[in-house]
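Next comes a concrete protein, fold included:
___
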Amino acid sequence: MTDPQRISIDSKGDLFGEIYIAEQGSDGENQPKGSLLPGLLVTFAAAAAAAWLSEHYGFPIILMGLLVGLSLNFVSRDTAVHRGQDFASQTFLRLGIVALGLQVTLDQVHGLGLQSLLALIGIMTVTFIAGIAGARLTGQSRYAGILAGGATAICGASAALALYGVIGRKRLPQAQFALTLVGVSLASALAMSLYPMIAAEIGLTDRQAGFLIGASVHDVAQAIGGGYAYSDLAGSEATIVKLSRVALLAPVVMLISLWLGAAEVSGSRLSLKRLRLPWFITAFALLVILNSSFDLPEQVRTMSLAGSKGLLLLAVTATAMRSRVDLIMELGWKAGTPIVAASLASFLASLAYVVWIGF
C-alpha cells in the first residue's frame, strides 16, 4: 500500500489548477533538484507536437496537450525532468492565467446578472449535497462528502486544502484527502476536455457553453482553458463565472467551519492563510481593472491571448506528464464516488440552467 504522506507529495495538485502540495507539504527533501532545462525541453517538444496535431486534425489544442502529455507519462520516470516539468506546470500556468486578465472587463462581470449569480450559488449547493450523498451511498463519512463536494463546487485543490483545514486529520484520514486531490484533478481534466465537445455537439451558443464550463469545471485554469477551447467569447464567460465561484471560497469555508465546529487547526493565522486567494488570481483581477479603466490597443489584447494560450498549453502538457493516474486504483473505487457524484451533479445542474432557464 502506498504511504499516504508520499501520495500527498507526489500528486502535485491538479491539472490546470492550484498546485499547493509541493509548496506547503514538504520540507524540501522530496522536491526535485537539478537543472530546469531537461524538463522544459521535453515539455516544449510535447506541446509543439500537440499544437501540430491540433492544427492538422482540428482537435482542441488543450485536449491534444493533455493527451500527448499523458501518453508521454513514462518520461517522468527520469527524475532529471521533474524540476523543469514542475516549473512549467506551476509558473507557466499562473502566468497564463494572469495574461487572460486583459480579455475581461468589469462591464462583463456586471453583465453576469443577478439571476445567473443566484443560479451559480444554486448549482454549487446541489454539487455540495451530491458529494455528501455519494459518500453516504458507499458507507463513507460525511466528511469525505464535504471535502469532495466542496472541492468540486468551489475551486478544486485550493478549496480542498481550506476545507481539510477545518475538517482535520482526526475526522478524515490523510489518504482520503490525497485521493480527493487526485480525483478532483482527474475529473476536472476530463471535464475540461469533454465539456466543450459536448457543448458543441448539442449546439450551445458561446455564452451558454461558457457558463456551463465555468459553472461545472472544478479548477480555475481548467475552466478558463476549457472555455477558450470552445471559443474566445465562451472563454470570457467561463472566466467570469469561474472567478465568481472562487470569490465564494472564504464564506463557504467559514460557514462549514461553524457547522462542523472546531477542528485540528494550528491557530487563526494558519486558517486565514488557507483562505486567501492565490497570487495569480489577484494579479488577474488587477489586469481586469486595468483593462476596464483604459482603452488598450487591440494588438495588446490579441498578443496577450495568444501568449496565454501558449503558456496554458505548456502547463497542461507538463502536468499531464507528471500525473499519477494509478493512485485512485490503489485506494479503491468507492473512495472516489463522492467526487463522481459531485461532478455529475455540477454538470447536469449547469446544463439544465443554460438550456431550460437562463439563456
The CA atoms of residues 89 and 315 lie 4 Å apart. Residues 174-201 form the longest helix (28 residues). The chain has one domain: 4-358.
